[in-house]
Amino acid sequence: MNDDPHAPVTVAEAQGEVEAQLLLRFLEARGIRAILRGEALRNVHGLTMNGLGHVEIQVAPADADRARELIADLRAGRFQLDEDMEVPDGN
Fold first, then answer.
1. What is the CATH number of the domain that holds 44?
2. Is the pLDDT of residue 81 over 70?
């Protein structure tokens, strides 16, 4: 256990690099700096079975509650784009 009050806090877990990057970028877009911590083999071989693709998404302790809420909303399908946010049209 880490006694450092400034140590990053795990707010979510992802299975694989794709999901981890999605959550990382989602939090960053909401103004929360995040880091990924996990098995290095996911980067080298793309392995995601038997826990090898396990990735922790970590943030500063001060951002932990907000990050958990945002991720919960995203995973529950409650997230909506801000009205003033531009969305690429895909062309």
1. 3.30.70
2. no
